[in-house]
Amino acid sequence: MRSLFLLLFLLPVATHAQYIPPDELEESYTDKVTNQSTKCTYWHVLRRATMRNPLSIWYRVSAIDNTRHYLELKVTMGGDGFLVARNQPLDLFLLGGKAVTLYNSQYTHSCKGCGNRHDNGDKQGVTLTYPIPDEDFKLLRNAFVDRIRLHYEGKYIGADIHGSNGDLFREQMDLVFHAHEN
What we know:
By secondary structure, the chain is α+β, with helices and mostly antiparallel strands. The chain has helices spanning 2-18, 134-141, 164-179; strands spanning 25-30, 37-41, 44-47, 56-64, 68-76, 83-84, 89-94, 99-103, 108-109, 111-112, 124-132, 145-152, 155-160. The strands form three sheets. Strands 1, 2, 3, 4, 5, 10 and 11 form a seven-stranded antiparallel β-sheet that branches. Strand 3 and strand 4 (56-64) form a beta hairpin. The protein is globular and about 40 Å long.
């Protein structure tokens, strides 16, 4: 009985700690030297690892002065190390057949625990930054991302974006855009 009471008491606390507000910014600040305004959304899951597929992808959208926009990814792929070279493409396939290709901003080699969102774990991962050109940002603000393809080492991995994750992706683009109006 005592165990049941503890479970019922702690369950709301534990689930509340995992909640990430979809309509708020995690970071919003102005650099005192450059006077540049930076806005970043919370990290959201794009794809969770499963027992069969260790690929996990988290993302956030950021903007500097609402003139430069970035898609940041935290990617883990299991136990083997990997690298993502500078200018490697990330393909975002949109519902309706259009596609947007972004390019990684720097050479990044994976390491154990890197790219993980909640723990340092033993999976190999990276954190990647993809600048978003203005015309692609406008398109992504109004589109539903259906599938992504991450290129690395002459190979690629693809992942379907399920359900509300594609819609949330669009909403995060819009959130960071409108944050600079306030």
